[in-house]
Structures are given as C-alpha cells and as structure tokens.
Fold these 2 entries.
Entry 1:
Amino acid sequence: MSAPTMDEAAKVFVDPAAYADDARLHAALTHLRAHQPVARVESQHYRPFWAVTKHADIMAIERDNNLWLSEPRPLLATAAADDLGKQQLEAGMGLRTLIHMDDPHHRDVRKIGADWFRPKAMRDLKVRVDELAKRYVDKMRDIGPECDFVTDIAVHFPLYVIMSLLGLPEEDFPRMHQLTQEMFGGDDEEYNKRGKSPEEQLAILIDFFTYFGQLTASRRAQPTDDLASAIANGRIDDEPLSDVDTASYYVIVASAGHDTTKDAISGGLLALIENPDQRDRLRRDPELMGTAVEEMIRWTTPVKEFMRTAAEDTEVRGVPIKKGESVYLAYVSGNRDEEVFENPFRFDVGRDPNKHVAFGYGVHFCLGAALARMEMNSLFSELIPRLESIELAGAPQLAATTFVGGLKHLPIRYTIR
C-alpha cells in the first residue's frame, strides 16, 4: 500500500501562525478528521511524520506505551533542533524531562515528584491556592475597570502557585516567567527575544540549568520541605538523579506547571465572555464549576501535541507505519472530534461526559493535572460571583506556536465588587 499524498490542510502542523488563527486551524483539522485522519506531513525544515487527528487513535497510541515510544522524538521540532538536542544530551547538557522518557526510567523518575500532586497534597494546598485566587481577583478589581487579563492576572496566579510549591523566592518569579516565555514562545515574534536558531535557544536552556544547578546544590546541602528539595534529593536504585535529569525535572515543573495553566485560564475567560449564556449559567449554578473547568481545558488545549515513535512496524487506521517513523498526536483535533463530543464547537459549562485529551492519557498523563484543575476552580469560583459585567476592550491575540500556547493578550473591560 503506497503512502497517501500530503493533504494541503496538513501544513498547519508545521506552521506556528496557524495556532494563532483559530478559524484557519479548525477548518484544516475538521477537514483532516473527515478525509485523511492519519496524514503524512513533509516539510523542508522538519523530518516527516504522520499526523493523527482522531480521538480514538490518539487514545489507542497513548495506551500502548510499549509500541509507541517518547524517545527519541517526544515533540515536534525542526530537524536542526532535534540534532542539536541529541548532541547536547550526549554532552551532558540537554533537556530530558518526563515527556522525553519511556518506562521503566520514566516511571521511576515520575515517582520522585508524584506525591506532591496526589489528592492529599492538593487538599493541603487548597487553602493557599484559594488565598491566592482572592488576591488576584482583588488585584483585578483594584487595577480596573480595564486590564490585559493575560499579562496582569493569568500569568501571575499559576506562576506564584508553582513557584511556591517548589519553594523558590518571590524575587525569582519574574526571571522564571521570562525564561518560560522564551522556551515555549520561540515561534512568536513578541516572545522571541534571543532568536530562533537552535544555538540561540540553547542560551535559554543554559540559563535554566545554571539557575537550577545552584538550587540543587543548595537543597542537597540544606534540605527543606518543598518540591525542589524532593527533586534535588531524589534517588533511583539508591543513586541520585543525574544532573541532566534533576535540572530537567525542575524545568518541566516550573515552566509547564504555570504556562499551560495560564493558557487555560485566559482562554477559559474568553470563552465565558464570548458565551454570556454559559457565564450566566455558571453564576446561577456554581455546582457546575467542575465541569466548566474541564470544558475550558478542552476548549483551549494548551499543549497542542506530543509525538511518539513506532518501536516496530504497525498501522494506524489502516495506514502502515514503519518501525522508527513518528506520529504526531493532534490533541487540539482530538478535542473537537465529532464522534466523541456532541456539538464539539459549542462551549458548554455542563458538558458531561467530557473525555478530552488535553492532559494526555496513559503513563504520560499530566503529572500536574490535579493542580491545574484546582487552580482554575479556585480562581473562577472567586471571580464569577463577584463579576458584575465584562466585555472585550480590544482584540484578543493568540501566540504563534507548534507546542504549548494560547492567548498572549486579552484586553477586557469589567466591573468587580
């Protein structure tokens, strides 16, 4: 069976600007789900891959982590960046986070931080998160009647939570925010301060590793009761984590732990602004907050994709995939699959069931999912009852990306009591 020719719609996967244009993106994804749900993608700057756009196929691949491996290509990057990353790892300076690993090493490394995100830990943290939610809604009130919700509120609330969990000093928060923007925002001109080349992006990674190397030394010398100390002193088979694995653990928690939540919070508020009937429904029935949060996460899908590589010859929906070939799990598409979600383009705060794949699935299910849900629940539970009016004060702007992203600006006009 010969490989199908590349559908023009599949070009969206290698075009960061497509994720800044919802209409264009979803038109392409809808077309691919209907006509080429396993689409071959070839591009000048990327190695070829297969884009998987149906929810059922994404779930099946996520379930079978023996057949579908994260290494060596866990996410979409240019061929030059892939090569540089491999060279950096060989030199002991690359990034190897949980998303890069396969079992059994992935399982062992994940255990080191898992207790900090279990239900008991979340219950213990909830009082503090609720306090921070009130602080930021109060701030929103105080700086009103207009603000940029992304830069004034949505960035800072989850950043403060995750940095506090790690036990980092507040004066370091702005630095961590800048590094995260540069790491995840390299495809967007506004965020890209150092350039797009792999060598320029390496400078960002070196800054992360320098900062967290100092943190590791400090926590090993004087352990404390925080997540940073748990990572610094984590052991596998009675051996400490390697320098690469330790620094990488910090990077994924500090960066993904707040940036993705920022995207879900800001995109969730925009959805409530654009769907006032759903906002009113949520105000009348606060018991819907749990399902509302899940719908915001489905709607925004901050992590756009991960990739897997076939460990042996196989097929997806009848399309042969050879050993060593990679598939792109299009979470944004899976979360609009008409076969899974009734009226998938309707924002519904009471949607139930809501089997979205925004947190992934299987062994790589997002470690911080419970924390993200709690943060969103706390913030919107504080905001919605106090919000007397809200409207756009300008055009929302989405960031260009191929991996993690969402709104970079959300100008609003409002009254809060």
Note: The longest strand covers residues 305-310.
Entry 2:
Amino acid sequence: MTSLSLKDHYGAVVVGGGQAGLSASHYLGKAGIDHIVFEKKTAAHKWKSERWDAFCLVTPNYQCLLPDHPYDGDDPHGFMVKDEIVAYLDRFIARVAAPVLEHTEVRLVEHTGEGFRVETSAGTVTADSVVLATSLYADPFIPRAGAKLPETILQLHTADYRNPQSLPEGAVMVVGSGQSGCQIAEDLHLAGRKVHLVTGNAPRCARFYRGRDVVDWLTDIGQYEITIADDGMEKKKHDTNHYLTGRDGGRDIDLRQFALEGMELHGRMETVSGGRMIFRPNLKQNLDEADRVYNGINALIDRYIAGKGIEAPPPSVYRPVWTPEREVTEIDLRAAGITSVVWATGFTPDWSFVALPIFDGTGYPVQRRGVTGVPGLYVLGLPWLWTWGSGRFLGIAKDAEYIVDHLADFVACDLPAARRVSAV
C-alpha cells in the first residue's frame, strides 16, 4: 500500500483509510474512477491500536456488512472479539486492494474553482472530488481538569487502555459511562480491581429480551432503517450510544448491580481541586434515566410483539436492585487509594485541514446523506450520517455506495455550471 507514487490529478481523493474510506474506495473502483486514499497512519489502525484486549462487538456478527464482505464466520449471532474483528478487517483490506498511501497526512483541502487542491505530507495533488472519511473520532478527548490531577496518578484514555494488569496496583477511577467506559469498568471489576465510575447521560439497553437479542427485535421493527431526515431524528447525531456488552456471549451492563458488588458510582464530574475530584449530585438521576430508556426500548418491543401476534416469553420491567442512599459530591483521590484514572470521555473530530464552509455551529458537517453544499465534496462514516447504522459495519456500505453514485454523476458531468449548483 505504501509503494504508490503520486499522480498530479485524480478523479477522487479519499481522506481516511478506515472502514469508511476503504468502503468508498471499493465503490470508486467498481465505478472505474481513478482515486487515491490518504491515511495518516495505517489502514483500519484504530481497530488494531486503540482497542483494549477484551474488546468485542456490541452488535451481533451478522450486522457486519462491509461492501461485498459480509460476516464470514460460523457464529452470526455471536460477538467478535478484537482479534477476530481485526482478521475480518484484514480480509476486507485484502479484498478491496485499495490504493492507500499510508503514513500520509492531509494538511489542506481547498476548492480551486475547477476542482480541489489537496496538500499532503507526501505532496500536493488536485482532484475532481473529495470524500472526507475521517469520522468524528480523530483525537482522544481529556477534560482540562485532568491537568489538575496529582502527578502520582496515572492518566490514560480508553484509546490507550489495554487490560487491568497494565495499570498500577490500587483503585481505578473511570470517568464516563458510555459504551467504552462501562465495558472497561466491567473489565477492571471482573479482574478484582476496586473501581470508581463517574456516570453521565448515557442510556442503556437490554442485551436479550423476550427470548431474543434486542438487536434482532429492533432490526425486525425497522429501527435501523429510520433516517436522520425523519421527524425528531435530527438531534440523534449527537446522542451517546447505549451501553451493553457482547462479552461472554452478551449480557446487560447493570451499574446498580456493580454497585451492590462494591463498585463506587458517582455523578458527573465537575472538576478536580486539591487532589479531590468533585461531582454533581446527579447519580440517581443518571441511573434513573438510563433505566427509563432501557424499559422504553423493551416496551417498544412489547408493542411490536402484541401487534404482530408473536408468541414470546412474557414481558418484564426492570426494577432497580440498588439506589444510592446519598450523593457523594467529592472524593479525596489519595485517601481512596486511586492510582489510575481512565478517561472514557470520547473523541474530538479534526477538520482543521478542511478550508471549506461546510460546518455548522457545533463543528458538524452540514450534509444530506453525505452530500455537502460544496459540489464534489462528500463526508462518510459519521454516526447518523443517514441511519442508525451509518458509520458502523452495518450501514457503511449503503452510505458509501450512495455517495459514490452521486460522485460518479458529478465527475462525469464536465459542465462548469454543474459545479456551481449546490448538491444539497
């Protein structure tokens, strides 16, 4: 992949060599469009270098539907672990045989009037079109409060966490209760480590309900086909993912049960001061809201079962197994024996190289199904780009095929006026 030499001009430039960029390359190749993929590190590197040892998928294997590369194992309702995911991706990389120039940073994308100019660490090219496939997960985000932690405490982001044994002895503070935070907290908890978990507004979801994986029910109901254009769905692109796990065949993650077993739960972190971490008194609210979503999803399934007359085990409602007696609003980290902090606080996108007016007030690209207002410029791989599956193995193929179809029509049209008409 790194033996490519640059040409002066391409029909399309793809920025990013993850599953989104590789999927775009797959369809660009099928369409006969001359293109190149620029990847700052290596193809699909995040799956290989930014996942912990016990990482596994939270959606069933059958939802792995990369272009012309569906899940090819013998456990469609299981959950691939890290090594299996990497092997699946390596087979996809080999199948696509994309023209990827690795270890190449894109430093500027600008419009020239006749097309695009793309500056990279390997040289500058021009292109008729550009696909931005860098996702929203470019840089690990650590709150500024991290700078106030005692120097004796090890700090690392989820992208750098590997296993409990890699951390120093002592208690661990996990900040953030999204999918990664809850799964890492569980990983540490199962290893016998004393864990403190800082909660937020992440919702939760049952793993199995009424005899089936909840994902199976939601697939039948059509939840994965709902688009961002449907009523009330626009705000979904900023939502936190539901927490659950595929570990050991899949199960719920119940933070209340963890609390019964000795995990310390806290409300949202406010700041760090004088060796103490300060929390909002909203732990009960966070747990209650997560359970409300959990029961709401199950109730949706109940209505579907009733409406279709499906025979299934009886319905149920989750009842809290533990409730905080009081809200702990601060903790002395040293006195609590906390020697490590794992920041499960997400990532920030890096669009600094895009010198084009495509972003809204939150820094999110303004687009419709990946098509931006700048003719010839596309985005791919974002959560809720079009559906719930966008950006995941489930929906990336449909999104990539759609934008490449649009791109192919654009590139084939050599009328200057075509480049002055908004594509949105």
Note: The longest helix spans residues 283-308.
